[in-house]
Design goal:
The structure holds two protein chains of two kinds. By secondary structure, chain A is of the alpha/beta class. Chain A has 15 helices and 17 strands. Chain A starts with a strand and ends with a helix. Classes of the chains: A alpha/beta, B alpha+beta.
């Protein structure tokens, strides 16, 4: 049986945050219900095609999955179980936004087999939350966290963000302290990225350029300040017993997010829902990104062939793109995804996957990066140094062939 | 078919830039029915993409027109278009050599300008009859009577019956055409004498080989003749002769004395054809070649390198092809530690440099790195030897230098009286030596200065325009060499000298230039993983320093739902940026940085 991960996308949000460029939008209950029906068809359809796989992780992400009625979430879980062989101790995560979850909902989630909750906090400062366009306060987060714990969730992630407009290392320290007090099993600590097409882009695009160039931005913290925040995160979380296992992710021992680790290890994954991405045996698919066409297509789901320049790939009428990942691209991904993890990549795995030694492909790059003190080779593994983590973009880009 | 010489008129149009030369050419072509108006595009002669875009004429162009005059006879007009910019005097000179007369276009509002005079003198040098035309009389500010007086006073040619026209609207073009018949002399020359034809232009065609544009002075040439280029000695058989339609070649039986046309002789090697050379018949050669044109030497040099070093042979081929019809372009191979293999190229001026650079990029699809332009310095060594320095990297050790000389130009600036002060200040700032000032009219002054050439090759035109709100016009010619205190300014990036960034500068300006250069480079060079000092040094002594700080953090955003393609795109973008960089030591320098010395005066 081959390993498979499942991702379910819920593209609905009560209100879009000002920095967010994910595929999400508000929707009324009828639309949500129609969407869930579409998801159920999609799940059932692929279930029949994946008899040879066993599912190790499920991730319900968004958007705001906790905005769905809990009975709908339960139906999705039931459909997944009916159509796929999910292993007994599978990691099953749902993303929740503070202020959208009730006691009853967490109860139903548990009953449905969900065993991990990921809560988007971003900041413990209410003024900052408001500035980000988030719909909740820090108090509401505390209540949500408490409800999750009381319903027996013993694997909780909290998302936090640094590099916010007006943020200093000191104010970020407060957020870290507040979160650590709750002892979540997992913390994701990202830097805010100013993405095109968001309201924040219009507000901070010039600042973002300045920040990147090492100059003095007006509202955004300087690169130096962001660097301090990152170091502060690493230091405080290490002291509190968290393992830094991926560039932006920290976990108590045994609580690394297996679903995300699967992405870095290039496991097979199937994405259900609007705009969802899948990777199946080195073919990458993305689903259509328009809601009504998506719902319509799920009513007549059928197999077809995706015509690329020089080959035809198996696909369905839900796909907006299908692309075979060439050997060259596989090698590149193996490196730039694998190296995101602190444990790095294994030489043996590389050889097993590609039939050549890693030096045969990357001798020059590896030597250069080692020389720059960004990379270490040790005990059959290759991984980033602390400095390499700080400038991972630079390092990872070197592995593009 | 033989053509009566007395029915041929070979002429060109000369004018100051923007006085309407190309527009008048268009009207002449149009009104003689060479093109129907449907085929007519504005400025038909300016067929290079670049010319149309900039609204200027770079290459000379020729066209043959049939005109039925009021005397009932048909005449053949060979019209040769000429460029107007000071950088292209050489081209003007070539065109003039093919003509018997010249139409002088003067703007009725602006009157005689610096370039008007320069072109008239060139025409008179070639013994051409000059026929003045007053253009743009439709402008509200037109003062044709004053301009007529000015032409007579300043230039000293009769202008009372000069046609007063508007080339734009077509007003009084008939008068111009009639005067071409009556005022421009017919060519002379014996069609039976040995062939003697002047090459005034050439271009390379991948099917026909080199196409030679020539003016037959004596004799006749036809298909099958064996011809010889007198300067290069190359011989070949004529495969086609013809004349110029508007934008096309029209084959004919023969070209005889007095005619202007082209010939193809399956000349494959572009170096065999030299503009200015004389074509003769190999079996029956003439005795003496025609006098060529005054050889024009390049004034400005810069290094040109292919951005992709594998494209070096392409750049060489492209330069070779451009040179066949632009003999003023010089080039020789050179190497740079920073930029690899390239060429040191010589140009007539900065506009010429820009045009060549753009033609290389557009017509030949090359991506170029260009180093800062410089002039030719004369370095007198202690051992008595003198070298002409075109590349700052080749400057001998200071201990071996007795003294150096730099080229100085005699500059004439015409400006309305309001801006005299501003222009004089500018000239002083550029180390100018005041010569004289005279008022041509109450409101217009002619200022003369001697200026070091290296002070005007960067941005003098721009500064002149901005400080006179566009009212100043400028012309210069090389006066000679003068002794000067010059030093080589070196740039060190991460403690390594970058040869392609060195330049020669007046000693007292070295500190200021060095400081600005470091500031500019600091902006151009992206941050690396380590700190990069940028230093300016003269003779090993650092005079200015800036630092590009090390990059501390560079991390990708959250990965959403396994959307790996997006991550890949970000990394690819990062990698793509690196391709446009040049590696010097362990520092990557963007190609633009090598030109940044040009922008030192922008603030």
């Amino acid at each position: 049986m081959r390993n498979l991960e499942l991702y379910v996308h819920i593209p609905f949000c009560i209100k879009k945050c000002l920095y967010c460029d994910f595929l999400s939008f508000p929707a009324d209950e009828d639309t949500q219900n129609a969407y869930v029906e579409a998801l159920l068809s999609e799940i059932a359809y692929y279930g029949t095609k994946c008899r040879d796989y066993c599912v190790s992780t499920v991730y319900i992400g968004g958007g705001t999955p906790s905005w769905l009625r809990e009975t709908q979430t339960e139906r999705i879980m039931e459909a997944l179980r009916r159509s796929f062989s999910i292993v007994r101790d599978a990691e099953v995560t749902i993303e929740c936004n503070p202020g959208t979850v009730t006691d009853r909902m967490f109860f139903v989630y548990r009953r449905a087999g969900i065993n991990r909750v990921s809560i988007g906090l971003q900041s413990a400062d209410d003024a900052q939350l408001k500035m980000l366009g988030r719909i909740h306060t820090f108090d509401q987060f505390l209540k949500t966290f408490d409800l999750a714990r009381r319903n027996g969730f013993d694997n909780i992630n909290v998302d936090i963000m640094n590099s916010l407009p007006g943020q200093t290392a000191e104010s970020f320290y407060q957020t870290l302290q507040q979160v650590l007090r709750l002892k979540p099993e997992h913390i994701s600590a990202y830097s805010l990225i100013i993405e095109k097409g968001t309201p924040f882009y219009e507000l901070y695009k010039f600042d973002a350029v300045k920040q990147q160039a090492g100059l003095q931005p007006v509202e955004l913290p300087t690169e130096n300040e962001v660097y301090r925040m990152t170091k502060l995160t690493e230091q405080l979380l290490a002291e509190a017993g968290y393992m830094h296992y991926e560039i932006s992710n920290f976990a108590k021992p045994g609580f690394a997010c297996m679903h995300n680790v699967g992405y870095w290890r290039r496991e097979n994954y199937l994405g259900f829902g609007l705009g969802a991405a899948s990777l199946m045996e080195n073919i990458r698919y993305t689903n259509i990104r328009e809601l009504y066409p998506y719902i319509e297509q799920t009513k007549h789901l059928r197999e077809g062939l995706w015509q690329n320049e020089n080959e035809e790939l198996p696909a369905t009428n839900l796909h907006a793109s299908a692309e075979r990942i060439t050997r060259k691209a596989q090698i590149e991904e193996f490196m730039f995804l694998g190296l995101r993890m602190m444990e790095g990549i294994s030489r043996a795995d590389f050889e097993k996957a590609f039939g050549v030694s890693i030096e045969a492909v990357y001798a020059e790059v590896l030597a250069k990066l080692q020389g720059e003190n960004l990379l270490v080779k040790r005990a059959g593994r290759i991984f980033l140094t602390e400095r390499g983590q700080d400038v991972s973009n630079y390092v990872l880009a070197q592995f593009l062939l | 078919m033989s053509i009566d010489q007395s029915k041929i008129r070979n002429f060109c149009i000369i004018a100051h830039i923007d006085h309407g030369k190309s527009t008048l050419a268009d009207r002449i072509i149009e009104s003689t029915g060479t093109l129907t108006s449907r085929e007519m595009q504005a400025q038909v002669l300016d067929n290079m993409e670049l010319e149309r875009e900039r609204g200027i004429t770079i290459k000379s162009q020729a066209v043959r027109i049939i005109y039925r005059a009021k005397d009932g006879e048909e005449y053949i007009f060979n019209l040769i278009d000429t460029p107007g910019h000071v950088d292209f005097n050489y081209e003007v000179s070539r065109s003039l050599a093919a003509c018997d007369g010249a139409i002088l276009v003067v703007d009725a509002a602006q009157g005689v300008e610096a370039q008007t005079l320069a072109n008239v003198y060139l025409a008179l040098d070639h013994n051409l009859d000059v026929m003045p035309v007053i253009n743009k009389i439709d402008l509200p500010s037109a003062q044709p009577d004053e301009v007529v007086r000015e032409i007579e006073d300043v230039i000293g040619i009769e202008a009372e019956d000069a046609p007063r026209i508007s080339a734009k609207t077509g007003l009084n073009i008939d008068e111009v055409l009639e005067q071409i018949v009556t005022k421009i002399p017919a060519p002379s020359g014996d069609a039976a004498a040995p062939l003697k034809a002047l090459i005034f232009d050439a271009l390379y065609d991948s099917y026909k080989g080199v196409i030679v544009f020539c003016r037959v002075k004596e004799g006749t040439v036809k298909v099958g003749d064996m011809i010889r280029m007198m300067a290069t000695g190359a011989q070949s058989e004529v495969t086609e002769v013809g004349y110029f339609g508007a934008g096309q070649f029209i084959p004919c039986d023969e070209l005889s004395a007095g005619m202007v046309g082209y010939l193809c002789a399956s000349i494959k090697n572009v170096r065999d054809t030299r503009v200015g050379d004389t074509v003769t018949n190999a079996a029956r050669p003439c005795e003496e070649p025609l006098p060529g044109y005054k050889k024009v030497n390049p004034m400005v040099y810069c290094g040109m390198y292919p951005a992709d070093s594998a494209k070096y042979p392409d750049l060489r081929d492209a330069l070779e092809k451009l040179q066949i019809n632009d003999a003023s372009l010089h080039y020789e191979p050179e190497t740079s530690l920073a930029l690899g293999f390239g060429f040191r190229c010589g140009f007539l001026g900065l506009l010429h440099l820009e045009i060549i650079q753009e033609r290389l990029e557009r017509e030949f699809g090359l991506d170029l790195v260009t180093t800062a332009p410089g002039v030719i310095y004369k370095v007198h060594k202690t051992n008595g030897e003198m070298i002409e320095l075109t590349n700052p990297s080749n400057l001998p050790d200071p201990s071996e230098i007795e003294y150096m000389e730099e080229p100085v130009v005699a500059a004439e600036i015409m400006v309305t009286s309001d801006y005299v002060g501003a222009i004089m200040t500018l000239c002083q700032e550029r180390r100018g030596v005041y010569i004289s000032m005279e008022y041509l009219e109450e409101t217009r002054a002619l200022i003369k200065y001697d200026l070091p050439l290296n002070e005007i090759i960067y941005d003098f035109f721009d500064a002149l325009k901005s400080r006179s709100r566009g009212y100043a016009s400028f012309d210069y010619e090389l006066k000679g060499y003068e002794r000067s205190e010059l030093v080589k300014l070196d740039i060190l990036i991460n403690r390594e000298q970058v040869d392609a960034l060195s330049f020669i500068v007046f000693k007292d300006s070295a500190y200021e230039r060095g400081r600005r250069m470091c500031e500019r480079l600091k902006e151009e060079i992206p941050r690396h993983l380590f700190e990069i000092p940028i230093q300016a040094a003269v003779g090993g002594k650092v005079i200015a320093r800036e630092t590009v700080k090390a990059m501390r953090k560079d991390v990708l955003a959250k990965c959403y739902g396994g959307d790996i393609s997006r991550k890949r795109k970000l990394l690819e973008k990062q990698k793509e940026g690196k391709k446009r960089m040049r590696q010097v030591g362990n520092v990557e320098i963007p190609q633009e940085a090598f030109m940044s010395v040009l922008k030192l005066d922008e603030d």
